[in-house]
């Protein structure tokens, strides 16, 4: 054994304690850590020959790299839609690395059964029925990818071909209809060989990001019976607008289409009784995407995908090898997701759900919604800013009151980030450059909203 490796094995408990102290220091200070740290010019080192050992490597990380890490796990990082990691989720993530299970094929571990239990809990949390079966993937992009891959196979089934067997060329053009498709949908369609150009964006309701269901029906009618895929939004990125999922599902009485619901973070509205109506009808979707490293507050990377057609999912993702054995009635996850090797992403989610339950996560969701509305009210009272849309859930979309050019809005974003007080990401809404403040972190409080508002005033 290499001498440094042998030495570290002998000192493993001590090394883990050193790492624990490092983690405790980082987490105890995350609330005051700068929300964003502009990267310095890189100065990469050469690959070590013999290495320095774990403790010296940790010291180098602490001095060279850690100071440049953002406070993305902290309470005022409001860019993208980024959650933190609850204490139980952190513990679960550490144990994920400790046990190092490959949650792909069964026969040697209970890890797959733990994942099935976790997906069952999540199915219940989001108001899905037992017809939906789930699996963990790396994020919303891969969740959308899996759902759309199954939808692609369903379209083939309607046309009498198997894309999994014969390739996408056997399918021809597949219309994908959506009102406000997320960028990850285009990326997934590109990877699936359907192409970004297959998307037909249907007009949205006036002043909204929600699709006009009547116009969607007209687009489906114009296909003259050709099967299609409809991507419905349960929470758009800019304004957290929701398509009428129940009405869209009702169109299947007249038109053949696969209904995929992109509920990356809007699906968490199901946890809050005053907002659950926003996702009414999601159980009727054929596939559902939910991102967990957003509002469930588990570490990156983690998402879940659900579908009613696991048989088609197996047809797409089956990995045939003698050492894996046949596909059983309860397929191993190696036959359900793109990866053959899978980190046990389910464990942090299992931990946080077991630790805090439905009520604990409902409290996080409802607090973040209230905080977003608080910031929206404060912005509405600032003469130099204006809201671009109502605060419907947990995202505040706003811009400058006068001359909101991309340059001026970008300067405000850089000023706020440079203060270290907050981090917000730019967007364009209905042609107007703006900023988004997305609340999804379990640590965020009213005091943090006050600090973000002060940074916006000063900017």
UniProtKB/TrEMBL annotation:
This is Aspartate aminotransferase family protein. It comes from Saccharopolyspora elongata. GO terms for molecular function: aromatic-L-amino-acid decarboxylase activity; pyridoxal phosphate binding; transaminase activity. Its cofactor is pyridoxal 5'-phosphate. The keyword Zinc-finger does not apply. GO terms for biological process: carboxylic acid metabolic process. Pfam families: Pyridoxal_deC. The modification N6-(pyridoxal phosphate)lysine is found at residue 294. It comes from the Bacteria. Keywords: Aminotransferase, Decarboxylase, Lyase, Pyridoxal phosphate, Transferase. Belongs to the group II decarboxylase family. Residues 36-45 have a biased composition (Pro residues). Residues 32-51 are annotated as: Disordered.
């Amino acid at each position: 054994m290499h001498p440094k490796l042998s030495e570290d094995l002998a000192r493993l408990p001590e090394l883990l304690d050193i790492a624990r102290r490092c983690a405790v220091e980082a987490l105890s200070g995350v609330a005051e850590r700068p929300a964003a740290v502009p990267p310095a010019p890189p100065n990469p080192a050469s690959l070590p020959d013999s290495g320095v050992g774990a403790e010296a490597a940790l010291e180098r990380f602490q001095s060279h790299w850690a100071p440049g890490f953002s406070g993305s796990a902290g309470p005022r990082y409001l860019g993208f839609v980024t959650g933190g990691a609850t204490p139980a989720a952190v513990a679960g993530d550490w144990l994920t690395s400790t046990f190092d299970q490959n949650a792909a094929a069964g026969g040697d571990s209970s890890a797959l059964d733990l994942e099935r239990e976790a997906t069952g809990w999540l199915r219940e949390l989001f108001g899905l029925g037992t017809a939906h079966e789930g699996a963990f993937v790396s994020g919303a992009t891969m969740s959308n990818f899996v759902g759309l891959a199954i939808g692609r196979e369903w379209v083939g089934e309607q046309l009498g071909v198997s894309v999994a067997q014969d390739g996408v060329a056997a399918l021809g053009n597949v219309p994908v209809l959506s009102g406000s498709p997320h960028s990850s949908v285009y990326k997934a369609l590109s990877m699936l060989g359907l192409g970004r150009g297959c998307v037909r964006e249907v007009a949205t309701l006036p002043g909204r990001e929600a699709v006009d269901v009547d116009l969607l029906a007209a687009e489906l009618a114009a296909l003259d019976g050709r099967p299609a895929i409809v991507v419905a939004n349960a929470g758009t990125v800019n304004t957290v607008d929701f398509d009428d999922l129940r009405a869209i599902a009702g169109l299947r009485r007249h038109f053949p289409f696969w209904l995929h619901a992109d509920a990356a973070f809007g699906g968490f509205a199901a946890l809050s009784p005053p907002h659950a109506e926003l996702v009414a009808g999601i159980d009727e979707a054929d596939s559902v995407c939910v991102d967990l490293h957003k509002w469930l507050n588990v570490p990156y990377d983690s998402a879940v995908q659900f579908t009613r057609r696991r048989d088609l999912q197996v047809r797409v993702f089956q990995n045939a090898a003698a050492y894996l054995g046949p596909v059983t009635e309860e397929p191993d996850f190696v036959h359900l997701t793109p990866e053959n090797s899978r980190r046990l992403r389910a464990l942090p989610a299992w931990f946080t759900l077991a630790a805090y339950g439905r009520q604990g996560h409902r409290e996080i969701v409802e607090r973040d919604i209230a905080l977003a509305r608080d910031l929206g009210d404060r912005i509405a009272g600032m003469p130099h800013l204006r809201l671009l849309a109502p605060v419907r859930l947990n995202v505040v979309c706003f811009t400058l009151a006068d001359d909101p050019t991309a340059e001026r809005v970008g300067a405000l974003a850089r000023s706020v980030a440079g203060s270290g007080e907050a981090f917000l990401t730019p967007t364009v809404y209905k042609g107007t450059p703006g900023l988004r403040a997305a609340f999804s972190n379990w640590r965020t409080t009213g005091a943090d909203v006050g600090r973000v508002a002060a940074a916006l005033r000063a900017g």
